[in-house]
């Protein structure tokens, strides 16, 4: 059994170092982009040596995926909790959108990590498409059964909706859509509720 160091067991110290590395990665990606998240920069930001980096991650790609995943989970928890007490789907959707709008307004790094960098970085885009997209759909609503519909057409409709939502949130975070948060939330909510995500006919989007 390892001995405690300064009152912390080895497992706790390792977990603390991992958290510091993730936070450092999130700060770098969220303010400067994926290209800025080199191993040297992360270790400098976390105030750790490179040997401790390999204790938690195999490489910077591994850390990048964890930065995205942890940021996504945080955003999902916030938006889901906001809609938990809502009486129906429209109210739940609006509460989640309002929470997301406030979240990225308070911390623009979240918008850059979740929405901007996956567009610019191919590695992150593949990870988001292959791993996170299904989670995103599940957190919004259970899509209507599209059996018998051309899968490519369905994908195009979903991509259209998500592309619009991503663009709106980026513009909102950068302050290009004015300061009326209620108007922004109303617009995004209306777009979501009239989209295939919530069972609207494919031709309506």
Description:
The chain has nine helices and no strands. The protein has 205 residues and is mainly alpha-helical. It has a domain at 87-204. α1 crosses α6. The longest helix is centred in the middle third of the chain and has 24 residues, at 60-83. Mean pLDDT is 85; it is low at 137-144.
Write the layout of secondary structure elements.
Layout (H helix, E strand, L loop, with lengths): L9 H23 L6 H8 L3 H7 L3 H24 L5 H18 L1 H13 L1 H19 L10 H23 L7 H13 L12
What fraction, in percent, of the residue positions are helical? over 70%
Give the radius of gyration.
19 Å
Number of strands: 0
> Major sheet, described briefly?
none
Structural class by sheet pairing and helices: mainly alpha
* Mean of residue pLDDT values: 85
Quick recap:
This protein is mostly helical and 205 residues long.
Features:
72% helix, mainly alpha
């Amino acid at each position: 059994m390892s001995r405690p160091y300064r009152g912390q067991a080895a497992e706790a110290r390792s977990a603390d170092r991992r958290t510091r590395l993730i936070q450092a990665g999130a700060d770098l990606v969220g303010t400067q982009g994926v290209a800025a998240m080199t191993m040297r920069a992360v270790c400098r930001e976390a105030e750790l040596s490179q040997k401790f980096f390999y204790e938690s991650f195999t490489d910077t790609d591994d850390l990048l995926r964890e930065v995205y995943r942890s940021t996504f989970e945080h955003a999902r928890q916030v938006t889901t909790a906001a809609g938990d007490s809502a009486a129906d789907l429209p109210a739940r959707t609006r509460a989640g959108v309002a929470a997301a709008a406030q979240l990225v307004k308070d911390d623009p790094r979240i918008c850059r990590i979740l929405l901007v960098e996956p567009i610019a970085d191919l590695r992150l885009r593949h990870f988001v498409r292959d791993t996170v997209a299904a989670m995103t759909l599940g957190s919004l609503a259970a899509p209507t059964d599209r059996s018998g519909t051309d899968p490519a057409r369905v994908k195009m409709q979903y991509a259209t909706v998500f592309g619009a939502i991503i663009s709106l949130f980026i513009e909102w975070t950068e302050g290009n859509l004015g300061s009326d948060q209620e108007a922004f939330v109303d617009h995004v909510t209306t777009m979501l509720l009239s989209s295939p995500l919530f069972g609207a006919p494919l031709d309506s989007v």
